[in-house]
Design brief:
single chain, alpha/beta, Rossmann fold, 5-stranded parallel β-sheet, 14 helices, 5 strands, 8% strand
């Protein structure tokens, strides 16, 4: 009887659980839930980068040959390096700064830990007078893993200290705003907290003031009254289009001139 009672009890519990399971709302699929879609998008992107991260975390191979050619041509009097992630990588500097000869050392998708790894090769060894650094948005997204704002700030400070030790003047650019006005491209927005962007920008401004660096405020010129990137400045909500770069270019030029005059 005891054994039979146990079997009846288990059967009753199983029946109850079955009823409960049937009454629970089904989980939203990634197709229906933008937040889940953003998480899956980031996971797939990370998976696609595993071989790169394991063999060349800083992606030093990207500019190795170009750097060798630059060094063999001798130092430039007022060489400027633009250093960053995809926003820099996609910036056609010769188009927006004609005749300046500015050097682009952006790599799409990179975070500040990666940029720190390649800073000697891609900046210090090129002996520029000024480096314009634009980073942080991929740290917030977690491209190379979860990061706190404080960890990003520490990497920025290390970049500045390395540059200072080699007489390179530093321009720290604000993290650019983002928008979700294009519903098909919400993943970029959902991966990047607007609050963390503001927090990081406040720290960057303060650090520049305290350490006599130049703060380049793209954010203030590109943000709308809702705290997002102006819709016409980025087709995907993150990467500036031509209109975006045309706002950024004169701001960068002014920051470079300020750095050179210090």
């Amino acid at each position: 009887m005891h054994k039979l009672a146990c079997l009846l009890l288990f059967a009753s519990i199983g029946s109850s659980l079955s009823v409960i399971a049937q009454t629970q709302p089904p989980e939203l699929s990634a197709k229906d839930d933008p937040a889940s879609q953003a998480v899956l998008s980031l996971e797939r992107w990370r998976e696609s980068r595993v071989s790169t991260y394991m063999s060349d975390f800083g992606e030093l191979d990207r500019y190795r040959e170009a750097n060798a050619e630059l060094k063999s041509s001798g130092p430039s009097e007022n060489r400027v390096v633009f250093y960053g992630d995809s926003i820099t990588d996609g910036w056609m500097l010769d188009t927006y700064f004609p005749g300046k000869g500015y050097i682009n050392r952006g790599i799409s998708g990179q975070t500040t830990p990666q940029m720190l790894v390649r800073f000697r090769q891609d900046v210090i060894d090129l002996t520029p007078k000024v480096v314009v650094i634009l980073a942080g948005t991929n740290d917030i997204a977690g491209n190379t893993g979860p990061m706190t704002v404080e960890q990003t700030e520490a990497n920025y400070a290390s970049l500045a200290e390395l540059a200072r030790d080699h007489s390179i003047r530093v321009v720290f650019s604000s993290v650019t705003p983002i928008h979700d006005y294009i519903k098909q491209r919400q993943a970029f927005f959902l991966q990047r907290s607007p609050e963390e962007i503001l927090q990081l920008n406040q720290w960057l401004r303060h650090y520049c003031e305290q350490n006599n660096l130049v703060y380049l405020d793209y954010y203030g010129a590109m943000v709308d009254d809702r705290g997002m990137m102006k819709e016409n400045l980025a087709n995907d909500g993150l990467h500036p289009n031509d209109a975006g770069y045309r706002i950024m270019a004169p701001l960068a030029e002014a920051a470079i001139e300020k750095a050179l005059s210090q």
